[in-house]
Each structure stands twice: as structure tokens, then as C-alpha cells.
Amino acid sequence: MTRVFNFSAGPATLPVDVLQQVQEELLDWQGTGMSVMEMSHRGKAFVSIAEQATETLKALLNVPDNYKILWMQGGATGQFSAIPMNLLRGRDAADYLVTGSWGKKAIKEAGKFCTANTVARPADDRFTQVPDRAEWSLSPDAAYVHYTPNETIEGVEFPDVPDVGDVPLVADFSSTFLSRPIDVSRFGLIYAGAQKNLGPAGVTIVIVRDDLIGDVLPQTPTVLDYAKVADGESMLNTPPCFTWYVCGLVLQWIKQQGGLDAMAARNAAKAGKLYGYVDASGFYQNPVKPEHRSWMNVPFTLADANLDASFLEGAAAAGLTTLKGHRSVGGMRASLYNAMPEAGVDALIKYMDDFAKNNG
Ligand SMILES: *Cc1c(COP(=O)(O)O)cnc(C)c1O
Fold it and tell me: Which residues are catalytic?
């Protein structure tokens, strides 16, 4: 068996320990004689798997009791619609901070349901930093303020939680969920697609303050109605059972690694090493303002874009895969989620350094 270091932005690398446990339990989950894929979602076995995953998540993130944890479908993209449908609550405007490509998609979708105001967005659409707080224009009538803590494509991450006063803060945590501790009580709603830092694709976590739910737009589909999903224990209809189970194992793995403080220390160290090398190399470049650089997604360009293809070819031969940057940014992108070991970063830096020496 040969495992590569997979730097994909998502679906992304998973902890080997988790994959091995999945393999061991695949044919016979804990004496049931069947795999989790084959179980009724209403049966005792799956209900216990589901509840345990939710409990572990609640404990890891210290989610206060007045928040609901929902396991939903439709991806983070589905939440771009669900959020205005659930959170407008009689208002007709919401505020969006746009710091990259996902924020652009979120505000566009929200525009179908309300007046979606831009709080801040760079005029040239080059997303290389979080705009200064002094440049933000929050509107007084906004039902909520939405932002993207980590922009997966551009590699721009908020260094802290923005202060928006009493208006509920809504955050698309997809690519930085569980990368460090957060104070959930600062948020009205947090959401994240699983396939970056939590598990396989197919499930989306929503953590929402319970006083904000229950007053939806009349046309809201039942499966996107947070109050109904909460009442149905996230099983209004058949959930993605296998994904939910694997997410539960990843959550256990995080706990065994020392929880979110340990994740944060590891993630800061991994990202720090790679940015440090890029900046010192004289061959590679990252355009993001240092304070706003992502721990999770590190885009970089080569001194000469004509070398991109041979860089990628040599990397793949060295067992370093999925490094091609998003087409909108070009160059490379190394995603360093929780499950990427430091050895993967070391191997990448060594390859980059050899490549620079041979081509510089
Ligand atoms: C990947 C990603 C999305 C889209 O997620 P889907 O689950 O594919 O809809 C949205 N926002 C961010 C920040 C992402 O990284």
C-alpha cells in the first residue's frame, strides 16, 4: 500500500487511523453483522452512532446548550439559500463581508431572497487581505452579518472573530472548521461542509442559536427549515449515514489528538513552516498579507508560470498530489487540514527546495 500526501482542498485527506477503523468495521459494525451503510437510520445502532458524533462535536467546540447542532445535506452551497430563508425573520436585508470567491457566491445566492448588502469587498476583486474594519459599512437594518472566516481558494483567513455588535453573526467555516478553538457564543450561526476538515463529502454541519429559528420564509423547503430539522434530530428524511459515521470517527480522532488546542498548535506550526519557506525562497510567492494568511489553504506561485506543469509532474512522482491551484488564482495551492501530518509539509518543502535549485 502506498499512501500519498494529498494536498487537495476538498474532498481532502483523512486521518489514516480513521480509514483503518472504517476498514476494520466495514463488513461487521460492532457485531451487528452489517456495515453502517446498510443499517436503518432509525435503528438503535445508527441512532447511537449519530448521537455520539453530535456529543463529541458539542464537547470539542464547547457548544453552549442554547445552540442546535444540525447535520444537513446540500453542502455549504445549500446553506447559502437556507440562511436567508431562515434568518431574515421578517426583515428584508442582510450584510455580507466578501473576502474571496465563496463569499461572492454566498452574497449572490442571498440576493435571490433579500437585499444583500456588501459590507466590504476589494474593488479589483483581488482577495489578498481582510479589508480594514474602518472601511466596513454595516447597515442598520440587516437581519444578520455573513462572512467567510477562511477563503479556501485565495487562502485569506480572518485572524479573529469580527465584532459586529448585536446583529447575529453568520460564518461559513467550511474550510477551517475545527482547525482551532472558537467561541461559539459569538455567533448566531456557524456552518461547514464536511469534506474539508471533518470527513467525507455529503453532510453539512449547522450550529445555530435556538432563538433565531422557527420564523422562515413561507416557501422554505422542509429539509432546509432549521427548526424542523432540529425537531427531527436531523433525521427528517434519510441522512447520509455513512458520512455521519465517518465524521464521528474523525471527531474522536481529534479528541484523542488533544482536541482543538492541539489542532491549533499543529496547524499553526505546519502553516508557519510553509509560509516561512515560501517567503525565504526567492522563487515562490504568496500574495496574501501575512496577518491574514490561511492556516488551511496555502496558495503560492512559481517564479515562472511556465514551470507549473513540470512542478506538478515532479511533485506527483514524489507522492505529493493535488497541488494545482484553483483556475481563478493559478499557481499552486497546498491544503494543510488537520489530517495532513507535519511530515507531509516537510516533504513538500524539500521537494519545493530541490525544484527551485534545479530551475532557479
Ligand atoms: C468548499 C466550500 C464551499 C462549498 O461547499 P459545498 O459543500 O461543495 O457546497 C463553500 N464555502 C467554503 C468556504 C468552502 O471552502
Answer: 102, 172, 196
**Amino acid 100: pLDDT:** 97
* Dist. CA 90–CA 82, nearest whole Å: 15
Q: How many whole angstroms from 106 Cα to the centroid of ligand 1?
A: 10
Q: Residue 35: CA atoms inside 13 Å, Cβ hemisphere, count?
A: 12
How far apart, in whole angstroms, are the C-alpha atoms of residue 94 and residue 113?
10
Cα separation, 37 vs 17, whole angstroms = 19
DSSP state of 32: S
Let me know: does 123 contact 186? Beta carbons within 8 Å.
no
pLDDT at position 124 = 79
Residue given cell 447535520 in the structure block: 71
Length of the chain equals: 360
Nearest CA to ligand 1 atom 2: 174
Q: Are 348 and 5 in contact (CB under 8 A)?
A: yes
Cα separation, 15 vs 21, in Å, equals 10
Residue 205, all three cell numbers? 454541519
Cβ atoms of residues 141 and 156 within 8 Å: no
What are the start-end ranges of the E strands in 135-269? 145-147, 150-151, 156-157, 169-172, 189-193, 204-209
CA 294–ligand 1 middle distance (angstroms): 15
pTM of the model: 0.98
Residue pointed to by grid coordinates 457485531: 31
Q: Is the pLDDT reported for residue 1 higher than 90? A: no
- Distance between alpha carbon 56 and the CA centroid of its chain, in Å? 18
**Where do runs of H (alpha helix) occur along the chain?**
16-25, 44-61, 75-87, 101-110, 226-231, 241-256, 259-281, 308-317, 342-359
Indicate the average pLDDT of the chain. 97
109 close to ligand 1 (CB < 6 Angstrom): no
| The residue type at 333 | R
pLDDT in tens, 260-276: 999 999 999 999 999 99
